[in-house]
Amino acid sequence: MSRVTEFILLGIPFLYDFHRFFFVLGLFIYLVTILGNGFILIIVAIEPRLQTPMYFFLSNLAFLEICYTSTVVPKLLQTFIQTKTTICFYCCFTQVSFHFYFGSTELFILTAMAFDRYLAICKPLQYPIMMSKHVCLQMSLATWYATFIIIFPNCFMVWKLPFCGSNVVDHFFCDFGPLLSLACADTHVIEFLGMLGAFVSVIMTLLLIILSYIFIIATILRVPSAVGRKKAFSTCSSHLLVVSILYGALAFMYVRPDVHSSNHFTRTVAVLNTTLTPMLNPFIYTIRNAEVKTAVQNVIHKRKGTLNSDNDWNNSSTTLKRSRNKMKFRGLWHQ
Fold first, then answer.
1. Which helix (H) or strand (E) holds 169?
2. Strand-strand pairing, 6-9 and 85-88
3. Distance (Å, rounded) from C-alpha 131 to C-alpha 207?
4. Beta-bridge partner residues of 9
5. Stronger pLDDT, 274 or 60, i.e. the higher one
6. Coil, strand or helix: which one is 277?
7. 79 and 9 in contact (C-beta within 8 Å)?
8. Exposure on the CB side of residue 126, measured as CA atoms within 13 A
């Protein structure tokens, strides 16, 4: 009955025959995720036109995506190149705690984004006052704080569980389900609290998003012009697509009674949720977004203008130096 000091991650056994290919593919997706979400953070920070409530929450989402995927993907890549991937006891619980913390905070940020779209479309006159910078900052801090209240009590209870038997985690990261199946104690209370936390984080936020879009669609349908309706829908399409992908995967993985079970399909959905979804979000929000394209063009033009002005300054300085040298040479020649 010795205490477990480390865990062994099985990874994804049914992909071992192609481990090199999936390592390269996973590394590429991870780098694109970091660069894509980092691009959103940078462009929102340096472009004044994008410093609005919608892009403030989008930059929060981009930061969360970087943190969310970074808690899992490096260890996933390690399982592809090592036959035995281990993780220390406290590292395992740190990973699962922050993974669920960042993932749950992302759900609340998406809810805040839906509320922002509701105010922008349904209450456009009051929108500038109701969504001031101070209010946006308070909403953002509230999402981080609310997630902490929901997630970490359950994480603390899992930390206190005794692990004295098998230390093989049947997953590619320390997930709650596989960890609970290894505990040497009754976990029914923790499973119930986990289901309750998942209900609040996933179901309640989804219901709030659906309620927001019910009012949004009802308002859009009352817009007389087709151009106005199309423009209003375009501002919400990216958010709706991200919500559909993310909530569909989460509902399948966590909001079910047999969450502790593991199978190939569940693990495949988990891989897609922790790799592809964070990578796709920057493209979903930027490819069809005219404001982001305009902001990028402005930054490029400003950069070109700066380079041209520097070149002009260097050219003028060089010309001035040459003329001075000629004058000095002529003076010496006459002497």
1. strand 168-169
2. antiparallel
3. 22
4. 85, 169
5. 60
6. helix
7. yes
8. 6
Contact 273, 65 (CB under 8 A): no
The phi-psi region of residue 266 (left if phi > 0; otherwise alpha if psi is between -120 and 50; otherwise beta) is: alpha
Residue pair 70/38 in contact by the 8 Å Cβ criterion: no
Lowest average pLDDT, out of 29-33, 287-291, 310-314, goes to 310-314
At 120-167, the pLDDT tens digits run 888 888 888 889 889 999 999 999 998 998 888 888 888 888 888 788
Q: Decide if 106 contacts 61 (C-beta within 8 A).
A: yes
Contact 54, 120 (CB under 8 A): yes
Q: Which two tokens stand for residue 226?
A: 């087709």
Instruction: Give start and end residues of each alpha helix (H) in the chain.
Output: 19-46, 53-70, 73-81, 89-122, 127-130, 133-159, 176-182, 188-198, 205-221, 226-253, 264-286, 290-334
Average pLDDT score over residue span 305-329: 55
- Rounded to whole angstroms, the Cα distance separating 167 from 173 reads 13
Question: Residue 2, Cβ neighbours under 10 Å: how many?
Answer: 6
Query: In 3D, which of 273, 328, 326, 227 has the Cα closest to residue 33?
Result: 273
Distance, in Å, from the CA atom of 68 to the CA atom of 76, rounded to the nearest integer, reads 13
Of residues 313 and 122, which shows the higher confidence score?
Answer: 122
Give me the amino acid identity at 324: R
Q: CA 221, 224, 225, 227: dihedral to nearest 10 degrees?
A: -30
For residue 117, give both structure tokens: 């779209």
Closest CA to 77 of 131, 129, 138, 9: 9
Model pTM?
Answer: 0.82
Mean pLDDT, the chain, integer: 81
Given the structure tokens 């063009």, which residue do they identify?
Answer: 297
- CA separation for the pair 295, 48 (Å, rounded): 9
Length of the chain as a residue count: 335
Confidence (pLDDT) at 170: 83
Rounded Cα distance, 328 and 291, in Å: 55
Find the helix packing angle between 19-46 and 264-286, rounded to 10°.
30
